[in-house]
Structures are given as structure tokens and as C-alpha cells.
Amino acid sequence: MTLTDIYLKINGLFEKLEKAVAILLISAIVLIVFASTVARYLFNEPIFGADRLATYMMVWLGLIGFQIASSKLRHIDIEFLKARVNQSTKCLMNMATSLLSAVFLGILFWISLDYLQASIELNDKDIVFEIPLWYIILILPISFGISAVRYFFAIFLWLDAFRGKRQEEEFVKQKLL
To answer: With contact defined as beta carbons under 8 Å apart, do 26 and 61 qualify?
Structure first.
């Protein structure tokens, strides 16, 4: 079993976990907003903090959605060019795109870690719930870090394709593309 095979198994497990968390978050958002709306019409007052809680959950949901997209190796592509080059050039272009994505997300990971640390040191708190804001900010380094690792391993997947060890059809079959 190669390193890329191990990565694909781990990536599949992470993706299942991310999808489960996303389903839970979107369900919770719908229930909270619905309950608050009903309370507003029945009692003339919405549930205190419901909109803020739904907003925080939406931030987490958006970044988990970003992670799910990165698990599928979805990134900015120049399909116009890729459609006009041979397979080996296409693999090289995909490796370069994956490398740039991994570097960019790695930089965002380090910046978000600094932001998280500053929030912890400054003891930032939400004024409504009086919870530390780093609970909300924590999703930033998690999302950027996991996505950076995924694009880093994508370089090796495309390298396997370049060397003829994998076919692009295999990526499609494993729902990576």
C-alpha cells in the first residue's frame, strides 16, 4: 500500500466525518431559526441569541463545506487550457495548481493560528453568550490546515498519474474529481 493509498483512505474517513458534522450543523441552524421565528410570532419575541448562534454555526458550516470541496480536489482550474493539452501536461498543470493551493492554504493556516492565539490571549468574548470567541475562530486553522494537507497530497496523486501509476479515471471513480 502506497502513501497515496493511505492518504485516500484517511481522506475518505475525514470526508464522512465532515459530512456528518455539516448535516448536524445545517439541521441545528434550521431548527434554531425556525424555533426563533415561531417564538417571534407566538410570543412577540424571538429566542434570545438565536440569530447569533445560527450565524456562528453558519461560519463553521461554510468552512466545513470548504473542506469537503477540498477533499474532492476542487480548486480554481483553467479548463480552457487543460482541454487543449496532452495528459502529461495536464498532470503537471494539476500538480502546479495543487502546490499553489497547498502553499496558499498553508499561509492562511499560519495566519489563522496567529489570529486564534491573539483571541485567546486577549480573552475575546461574545457579548451575548459570554463565551470565548476562539471557539468560533478555531474552525479557521482546522479548515485551512486540513485543506492544505489535502492539496499537498494531491501533488503526489497527480505525480502518480504523470508516472502512469494512476489514471485520471481512477480519480473520477473515487469521486475526487
So the answer is: yes
Q: 168 and 87 in contact (C-beta within 8 Å)?
A: yes
pLDDT band at 165 (very low <50, low <70, confident <90, very high): confident
Question: Which pTM does this prediction carry?
Answer: 0.86
- What pLDDT shows up at residue 126? 92
How far apart are the C-alpha atoms of 94 and 133, rounded to whole Å?
37
Q: Which domain holds residue 93?
A: 3-173
Amino acid at 107: I
Which residue, 63, 70, 59, 74, is CA-closest to 143?
A: 63
d(CA 166, CA 164): 5
Residue 123 one-letter amino acid: N
3-state class (DSSP) for residue 64: helix
Total count of domains within the chain: 1
Specify the 3-state DSSP secondary structure of 132: strand
For the cut 80, the answer to whether the pLDDT of residue 82 exceeds it is no
